[in-house]
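User: Can you fold this complex?
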Amino acid sequence: MTDASTPLVVGDVSRAAGSRPDDDLLQGLNPQQREAVVYRGNALLIVAGAGSGKTRVLTHRIASLLRNKEAWPSQILAITFTNKAAGEMRERVEQLVGQHAQGMWISTFHSACVRILRREAEQFGFTKSFTIYDSGDSRALVKRLVKEYEADAFGLTPAAVQSRISKSKNELVDAEAYARDANMSDPAERKFVEVFGAYQRALQKANAFDFDDLIGQTVYLFRAFPRVADVYRRRFRHILVDEYQDTNHAQYALIHELTRPVVGKAAEPYSAGGMMIFEPEHAPELEPASLTVVGDSDQSIYAFRGADIRNITEFERDYPGAKVVLLEQNYRSTQNILSAANAVISHNFDRKDKRLWTDVGEGEKIVGYTGYSQHDEAQFVADEIDVLRRGGMAYGQMAVFYRTNSQSRALEEIFIRAAIPYKIMGGTRFYERAEIKDALAYLTAVANPADEMAVRRIINRPKRGIGDVTVETIARYAADEGITFRDALANASALGVGPKLQTSITRLDAVLAEASAVMLPSSGEIAPPTAVAEGLSVLLDKSGYRDALRASRDPQDEARLENLDELVAVAREFARNNPDGTLLDFLTEVALVSDADDLEDASGTVSLMTLHTAKGLEFETVFLTGVEEDLLPHRISAGEPGGPSEERRLFYVGVTRARQRLYLTLAMTRAQFGEVSVAMPSRFLQEVPAELIDWRQSPGDVNSRGGTQSRALNARRPWGQRRTDDPPALRPKSTAMEKFPNRIPAKVRDNGDMELASGDRIRHEDFGDGIVDAVTGEGPKRVAHVRFDKAGAKKLLIKIAPIEKL
DNA sequence: TGCCCCACCTTTTTT
DNA sequence: AGGTGGGGCA
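Assistant: Here's the predicted assembly.
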């Protein structure tokens, strides 16, 4: 996080004569890639298809700029989508140019903005110790305000309010601007304006930014203070943006601000919040910085949160004279996989045609499988992983993708039973766990005492007998005295609360003060690198937080203690990597780093993740599960403009992650909301040319019950009886193509409105005869509770179960 | 104030 | 189905 603060040098940077110092950087690049590396001009758009080596091109381009002495490291700003991508890029540039990589800014939009805002916060009413609200924090705040303003009476749910605020900010429309254009004759709209305004005031009061503000306020800063903007325009001469198709309007505007020409005359020497800026006495007017963007509109999957695909499609208009380079040769996947991807994505009508190709050959066919249930589907995946593993493929080379996080459950259950090591990427995040948020709130209370939310969060954790009534008393006292909530804790005796409460409050105040002394030593002293970890331990121990967990009889609290230990370990690790890192640096990193970023220890385990998380990754083998209507494409996308296309791109992203083997799997029934429902094969399956898929079990097979047995049933057999002599991969290939020529079968097994009542006798293809105990549910979701003579009690979905009435 | 039970809502994706 | 939050009661 620290910056080498290289003095800014502008002007002639001479080129070495003779052979280019970057010759070796061009080795092994195809002509298009080479052009993308060597082109020099104000604007360059690299349209990079999946797997076309864009990271290579980007890193080599940066290295080339450095090697040729066309730029100092400090003049380079490279923006990536995730911290992980940033780390990888830095590493690869370092491999190419060694120490010269230091001083470059390679980071996400959010991290870059935090660095700028910390330096400039005082320019506009914040202090540099501001904290960052993640979506959970924002949600909590919105929720409180919705309640306070009784906005729910107008049909405004916290989730809706939060999303509207976020969308608005992504369009650079702040609370004031929104209020100006709002339709104030609509009472619900008026209410929203009120809440939006209150939300923003609360953030300001807490000296905090939410995710969207990090970008939006930086843009505001640049526009309101051109002199500040000029500092960064002079500094960053080469700006590179990865995943440009996923930028939203605010991010677009930020880049636009940074790539304006510097028109103002250089002002007097100017120090920007710690960054020493040396400006030559006669700073010349400067050309705009050169801008390189890389993107693929076919991989735009974040429109739902404001990403604007037009940023890439209209790049040439925004930057006249821009050069466009197309990378279509794919170095990742087999031709079969690419053909499937090309075929599916070509169904999106509003795109420029682009066809990925490779010279590595056709490769294996795509394998299709249809399970009876999601457990059955998961069992197939587990069995295949087992077979591939025995064939020599490492677990780390295999990944399972799904559309929604909830789908991971069934997979996990089966994987645990099959003893397959796996790791869930993303998912329920470590940093969203209650105990971690508590611990971070303690740290925040120390780092940014203005953050009332943080103090409120921890004031009664562990239980100190400080309830709502007392909290409000403190809040009122703070307001009356004109001090912060945090400072009010120091005057417990003046609050007019009972002696027991006074003691509790004073103790908490003392703990916070002690930790503060450890982590934020008074001026002059420098906190040792371990200060954060030590301070955190002080907070957790002396507040009684750990003791309370230890004393608890809730078995989950054991795990919570371990999580806290892990957080302390993270703090130590942070200290190792950032010897000068402060408490604020730590909190910043934690707020901006997602779990998806720590993919390092995924070796040796199968990776499970959502399709969104999968973007930018690649695996030898990919299982794309739940390829069903209403799931992929997701039901909710149907109603949104551009939704179905975006889902198709999501499918495309998933398919193109696979290097050699691709599995497309689905289930005929899926339990959702605790209810079983019938699933239909996804339309995307129809869009894959039939000859590319080898169906081990097609939807047609399942519906006609071709004598195969449910794997879920296999799985329930005792271990010894498992048919190890019949591993799935060695089974005769299905000839089901004619039964399911890649068309959604017209004859799904359908019992129609079969009437069943308790007492009826039925016959099931697998379970034999039984008697109906009860029927629950309605319509197509009616479920029969059946006691089978041999197989015991089962619940069956009447509409599709292979049963007949006797 | 704290605990327990019930109702409800979830499940789209994330920096 | 499972988790969370709110409300009511001790």
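Chain A has five domains: 23-121+217-265+285-327, 131-206, 335-427+600-703, 433-580, 760-805. Confidence is low (pLDDT under 50) at residues 1-18, 266-274, 276-281, 705-748 of chain A.
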